[in-house]
Known about the structure:
Blueprint: H1 12-15, H2 33-37, H3 77-83, H4 109-117, H5 131-144, E1 148-152, H6 155-166, E2 172-176, H7 181-193, E3 197-201, H8 206-212, E4 219-223, H9 235-244, E5 248-252, H10 257-260, E6 270-274, E7 288-292, H11 294-307, H12 313-324, H13 326-345, E8 350-354, H14 364-370, E9 377-382, H15 386-395, E10 400-401, E11 411-414, H16 415-418, H17 425-430, E12 437-441, H18 447-459
Helix pairs in contact: 5-12, 6-7, 6-11, 13-18
The structure holds pyridoxal-5'-phosphate (PLP).
Pyridoxal-5'-phosphate binds next to helix 6.
Amino acid sequence: MIPPLLVPSYGPSAFWHKDTFVTPIAACPCPHADRMRGPGADGTITAATPRPRATRRRVRDPAMNDPGSPPLRPPHPETLLLHGDDPLHEGASLTPPIPWSATFVADDADAFARMASQPMHPRYYTRYGNPLHQRVARLVCGLEGAEAGLATASGMGAIACVAMALLSAGDRVVAQRNHYMGTTRLLSDVLARFGVHTVFVDQTDADAFARELERPAAMVLLESPTNPDCSLTDLAAVAALAHAAGATVVVDNTFATPLNQRPIPLGADLVVHSATKYLGGHHDLTAGVVVGDAARIRAVWDTQIVLGATLSPMDAWLLLRGLRTLAVRVERINATALTVARALAAHPRIEQVSYPGLASHPQHALARRQMRGFGGVMGLRLRAGYAATARFVAGLSLARHAVSLGGVDTLVVHAAAMWSGTLDDEGMRRAGIEPNLVRLSIGLEHADDLVADLQRGLDALD
Ligand code: PLP
């Protein structure tokens, strides 16, 4: 007997149910599902309510054998990225149609009342949800091992909604000295005005977290590896300290991706992504994702719909398409980045390559413990001053001089130039941004070509 699912549930158990797939009610692929299933005795709709025969369509669950035989093991991420949202598919087109609509038509008054009152309904009003948001969330939940999730307008949209949903005036937050700059500003400029107090600690020092977490905290916000110079946070150790202090643990997993690091099994309550980066992967969309337990995700959704951090259906479609190839992109980028990092570390014009995959990285042992691959971002410290570093960056021909990271094109930025409008000298020093620091985000070009381009640029400094 299939249990009723009254709240959205995208977790693995909902994905890979025996007998046939189980579509969570809020994730139902059929636009007329409410009418077809009809309400139960108490007015609720349940997954156990049968669909009329003519419209019942059996979707093969890729994780299942024939009924009666033992279940197969859960699919690998590559397969999950292609089939994890199969139960939400509708129509005959292989790729999903774009529900390019701000609103959805109800079949009758009862259906409208249900659409209006059901949290996270995918076909009520796009600011409240959209079928493609749901498919994106489902895939990321599968990868991260989360129960529920939301797609948002941007990474900052995800982080801001999480903070505004879960924090109140008087709350204390423990965060890292190094975060994406937007996150730091959200905490120190915006939330501070609403009475939320944040302390920033050196993320490489678990004892610093322990000291701050001797007192209660509402939230611990983590990010690893960090932007721009790839220092790490011991996620399991800090999550344990945070929980002992009563805090919700939120991890920004943008740099690592769920292929390289899964914060939830390490203790995170919520994981956020700037899906603008690796998840989308082509520098052609702006999006965010937040996943975690159903209760917190419901609270974040309640806030998201009033803040309006809504992902457009077109960007959701692009994100879904980008996600299909995430695993192969990340695997290739991991390998290329390691090759490039090793080659550059040997160049006389390089003072330091900060990349968690190198044995010379001060937290390499931690990287090996909590990551499965080391990602595509590295910090380069040149033996050069500000002007020569700027010349190096501008002179590269394959690595494009552009902000952002995690896409198919290799991107390079001069960190001091990038943050000069946001941070004063003291802020730069605290964030570890020296005049000779370059951030490199490896793409899908061949490693040999990238190494040659970068070496040519370094040689030209002589
Ligand atoms: N988190 C990290 C680690 C980032 O690097 C960024 C952007 O660069 C963000 C969050 C914000 O993401 P978005 O630009 O999608 O709002």
